[in-house]
Design brief:
364 residues; mainly alpha; Rossmann fold; 3-stranded parallel β-sheet; 54% helix
Length: 364
């Protein structure tokens, strides 16, 4: 069985720890697993424009920032095809054909679309919902099916999008011919990674909310953010019993730390359970656990910074990765487009069928 993997991100800002645990980490694991045929990672600039049409420079300026984030975490251009969405001409054409298979009401019922519409204020009665934004799930279906992706690593907020793609695949194959591949979403193994909360305790780490730790943050920036993290407002004195539920420091420790971190940075505790028990019974200050978390995150981010610096000094080479990958992505997507048009019987001049049908029609 052919395994094609597609995933990607919108270039609206640098990637953060939420992206890393939600999808990026899995991508590195997948690239190091030989059980796939193509691993394609898309910088979704066209989708980013659906809610940044008034600020295209923001999107353009972040294309290379996102690419550098990819390279910094260890994604390898020898194993991965990186490409820019707007550079693949088959995608908008596929989107147009799929639009006829989905109703507007179905698009607006999509939970991800509904939440993003509210987040961006499109429902306030003044702005209105851009057609391109409402069309987002269909565009994403074009991305997935163009590359015959059957594996799509996502965070849980993207599950409705993959489900919408599955509906479109089923509808197309039933209406025309069985040419589109059914995709399957792949979630992080750790449920805590589905949607990493922001450092302020908000339900999601988000660039728009300003509550992120970015993969490119300096040591000083990481330390400042960790020490500002939301903990337990009732834990006023060190001797006060503390709560670990809803405490962002412990939430992040659940995600990022392991027993080896304790051996290295906090040897008086064997594991996280011992640390939690001490905090809950009192006698452990927030500053100590924040210092420990800082060291854990700093250990993770240090090699990312080093790789990013390496590629920043070779930016022409980085652009070459994207240019070559976009050419390859075009080749793959064009094959799918040919198959789709053939299934729809709108490939009028690719063979003699259309000519023969019309000749017979008018001669008889």
């Amino acid at each position: 069985m052919i395994n094609n993997i597609l995933t990607g991100d919108r270039p609206t800002g640098n990637l953060h720890l939420g992206h890393y645990v939600g999808s990026l980490k899995r991508r590195v694991e997948l690239q190091n697993n030989s059980n796939y045929d193509n691993l394609l990672i898309m910088i979704a600039d066209a989708q980013a424009l659906t809610d940044n049409a008034d600020n295209p420079k923001k999107v353009r300026d972040n294309v290379l920032e996102v690419m550098l984030d990819y390279l910094s975490i260890g994604l390898d251009p020898k194993k991965v095809t990186f490409f820019i969405q707007s550079g693949v001409s088959a995608l908008p054409e596929l989107t147009m054909y799929y639009m006829n298979l989905v109703s507007l009401s179905r698009l607006l019922r999509n939970p991800t679309v509904k939440s993003e519409i509210k987040l961006r204020g499109f429902d306030d009665g003044n702005k209105g919902i851009p057609v391109g934004f409402a069309n987002y799930p269909i565009s994403q279906a074009a991305d997935i099916t163009a590359f015959k992706a059957n594996i799509v690593p996502v965070g849980d907020d993207q599950l409705p999008m993959v489900e919408q793609t599955r509906e479109i695949v089923k509808s197309f194959n039933n209406t025309y011919e069985d040419v589109l591949i059914m995709p399957n979403a792949v979630l992080p193994e750790n449920e805590l990674c589905y949607r990493l909360p922001g450092i302020d305790g908000n339900a999601k780490m988000s660039k728009s909310l300003g509550n992120c730790i970015y993969l490119k943050d300096t040591t000083e920036e990481v330390k400042s953010k960790v020490f500002k993290m939301y903990t337990d407002p009732t834990h006023i004195k060190i001797d006060d019993p503390g709560h670990v539920e809803g405490n962002m420091v412990f939430t992040y420790l659940d995600v990022f730390c392991n027993d080896k971190h304790f051996e290295k940075y906090l040897p008086e505790y064997k594991n996280l359970d011992e640390l939690k028990n001490h905090y809950q019974r009192g006698g452990l200050g927030d500053s100590k656990i924040k210092k420990f978390l800082f060291e854990v995150i700093e250990e993770l981010l240090t090699p990312f910074r080093e790789r990013r610096k390496y590629y920043e000094e070779r930016i022409t080479e980085v652009i070459g990765f994207l240019e070559n990958g976009t050419k390859k992505a075009n080749e793959i997507a064009n094959i799918t487009l040919i198959d789709v048009k053939k299934a729809m019987k709108i490939n009028y001049f690719d063979n003699d069928d259309f000519l023969n049908e019309q000749v017979n029609k008018y001669n008889n």
